[in-house]
């Protein structure tokens, strides 16, 4: 019965949903435009990119099929794994080659090494690679599930239900609570705030630190409880999914009512967070990969390959052609030898058809020589990379205890790439900064004050405030108001300035207070304003109440009410914000805060007839404040200047009429408002300045300095404002004070081209060098700069600058900037960020780093590696990156070396075997060479070798530069040097034993051996030589490396002793019977064991000795200093390295030359050289809801709706 009842309920719900859709379709009203008229029901003309979608409210079963809300950043799905994995594996030429060899070995009588010697290892390699990819991709799926399984309240079946994000469907009505992310793209219906406003934080989308205001349409603002929402019958017609974050066009069609237009102000985007708002109701319109967030990211994770992989892939192709040439020559020589000897060797049956014989011999030699390309290399690389990734995951030094977040290698294919980075592209908000503003210091009346330390988070006690210097000055000055002493009068005047300054901090803002449990929480769209009000509270000037007409503050325990008359809002062009208010005494005052450059030019001019004493006093006040501003800026603090003036009643009334006329003007309204503001914002009196810290993540300046010292170029790509971006550049020491700033803010392609070309000309011959100049460009200008016309000129200009900061950029622009470097520079790029807006650049860069441990995990899920803090990037690159790069270079070179040493001997032996394709070594010995006898040394050097310790690499970032990596650096030239060296060694390892056994008598009793005995001689010497070669290139000796190197030699001797006695007990290795006794009883063998490997490696030892003595690399010198227990940093003071330090002097000279040339074109080039005063202020601009609307809407004395 229960099952039947459940099915009946499901059927009823489905029927109700269908009827609901039908009713919607029958009762739609005409569209109401902004002026109240109506228009046809034809689809809007802006839907040109695809069909518009129609979404029925409260109906998760839509008539059209939309994407679900499940998102994935993983590489593979269950169905795509096999084709994508095989595609990725067979992009490697070596795997294609071995597949061909494995197929050729299946042809009867062709393979001299058996049918399975290549196929079985190839299957093993693919299996290991598949297992590694599965393990890594499972981690990505789990990270995706962490997001997809978050829960949100959805209105279904007449009640609110908590469901997972992935189950949210288009048409659902959802309830989102404060400080939570939006699960999909929503249209705002209503909220807990007055006039259905809501505050959202979009730092995860565009990097901006200020909150943005969204407001529901008045027709839906009254939907404040469940019953009203359930009875709401409407649909939303909107544009198809697109990636434009700030654009949205839609129509809300409500049953039996006129339809209304929807725009960006009603759109709540996935990835944004609800702030300062208890709850909102919204309709889901885009889900999953249709959301604007996901539209700005690639839908699937790219298949990235390391630079070493690409390099080796190319060299393997070259080796294949060489191998093919050798095989063709060997087959030709076989034909020649056969023709010359077929009559005398008739018993060998050499009379077969020559064409057929040539073809079979060619295949035989291809199979015989195929191991010139090491099949074991791929499986060794996979194992080593997987373990290296485990080392990264287990590094306790990159574990962040506060968030319980370790480092995570989400892919191991790029481990060595971490040691080759040349460019780092970093986001600002959440990556370099904490997105937390804190009031630090202030300058009032020419005197500096530090912030008092409160006793708790919200309230400062009387003891705290009265013990601070500022409060003491106020209290002391007030007590001296009636004194006739000049010094006391100055103190009284200063106290009045302090009091007015603190009043201004408490009143001149758009903050909303909320009282919860006898404490006050401040909500603000501007983080700067919240920091200022919080700072004033710590001085015991508490902002307490806001109503549409007045505010109340508690100043040193006294309740004061100020009537807010006018608000002149902040814009980037004005760089200031003002409030006109009426004081409790009835006076009208204007309070103005902003950049020092705009405040100072609006101060009351100093009268010429002012006495010298007064002149000195005024000048000191202003000049001292400027000095304080410069000091604040040098510390990387955000500064604001504060000034005020009293306005006569009649002057204010005349201005008020003028301002009202400007505000309702239909023509040139903005200019008229600006002119009206200029009339009132004049003849101000300077009060002081504030310093706000945009708190950096731990050790950010130190990390950036280390990256710069390692010859890594650091570019900041942020969606935040230009002033904020520049300010952070100073605070994190990326920009130094006195460094010229090239600022490009142009409004057209032609102007952008002109400026970029002019600045390139200014550099002259230094354009190809890096100059001590910072380039700052905004997002709109960047669009022009990245166009085809001037793209390469812009790249040259960026390359000539030491610092590049791109501000107000979109996620796609971030990816385009990264692509500019990856596509045109032979450099390894790294992108690091924490937000969803960073995913595109993370996926575009060679290496993507995500900041995890924060609420938004989109960047971490899409990254190749995730860390909890920016500071861990230093250890990830300098320690793990450098170690892995050095290890992988040695592993790759050594793998080719050891294979060529053994398998080219078959070529030398072919000369003596009539080019017959006969093998010199026993088959099992050949098969076990890479698997057993020489497998351990490359694994050991790939996992445990290190030139310098972690402490040395972290202390001396210059060691990271690839030019200092010494013999661990892998290039085409070095690769072929190793190949030629291996060929030379293989020749010695064959011909020297052959000459020692030339008379074919190796024993005193006159016995001799066959070709297999020669093979065992040579094989032994090869194993000893290649293991000794490993000993020469391993720098860090541990018991593991000793066991791997010397244990491999012992293992061969044990093998030959045991294997030579298998037959007839086991039907294996009959040809090896007794070879151990013959081998070990030969004096020639033991003498050769000492002399031949020594002779072969003598040249290598000599070259190493000369290189480490005469042409010693900085890395090698640092290692030697470590061994001697002296300071590794001493290597940077020697003459060889000191020459590189003259680079700084060259840069300074370049800058001087640049500005010498620039002076001739100063009118055309905008370069800021003056000392920065650190102005920065975050506030939303251009929204339909103004800051005036916000403060006029709130009455904090009234309760808020519950939304139930």
UniProtKB/TrEMBL annotation:
It catalyses: ATP + H2O + phospholipidSide 1 = ADP + phosphate + phospholipidSide 2; a 1,2-diacyl-sn-glycero-3-phospho-L-serine(out) + ATP + H2O = a 1,2-diacyl-sn-glycero-3-phospho-L-serine(in) + ADP + phosphate + H(+). It comes from Camponotus floridanus. The active site is at residue 427. Pfam families: Cation_ATPase (PF13246), E1-E2_ATPase (PF00122), PhoLip_ATPase_C (PF16212), PhoLip_ATPase_N (PF16209). Coiled coil: none annotated. Belongs to the cation transport ATPase (P-type) (TC 3.A.3) family. Type IV subfamily. Its cofactor is Mg(2+). Its main location: membrane. ATP binds at residues 427-429, 529, 570, 593, 638, 718-720, 808, 814, 837-838. The chain crosses the membrane at residues 316-338, 358-377, 891-912, 924-944, 970-991, 1011-1031, 1043-1063, 1083-1103. It is found in: Cell membrane; Golgi apparatus; Membrane. Residues 149-210 form the P-type ATPase A domain. Its EC number is 7.6.2.1. InterPro entries: ATPase_P-typ_cyto_dom_N, ATPase_P-typ_P_site, ATPase_P-typ_TM_dom_sf, ATPase_P-typ_transduc_dom_A_sf, ATPase_P-type_domA, HAD-like_sf, HAD_sf, P-type_ATPase_IV. Keywords: ATP-binding, Cell membrane, Golgi apparatus, Magnesium, Membrane, Metal-binding, Nucleotide-binding, Phosphoprotein, Translocase, Transmembrane, Transmembrane helix. GO terms for biological process: phospholipid translocation. GO terms for molecular function: ATP binding; ATP hydrolysis activity; magnesium ion binding; phosphatidylserine floppase activity. This is Phospholipid-transporting ATPase. It is a multi-pass membrane protein.
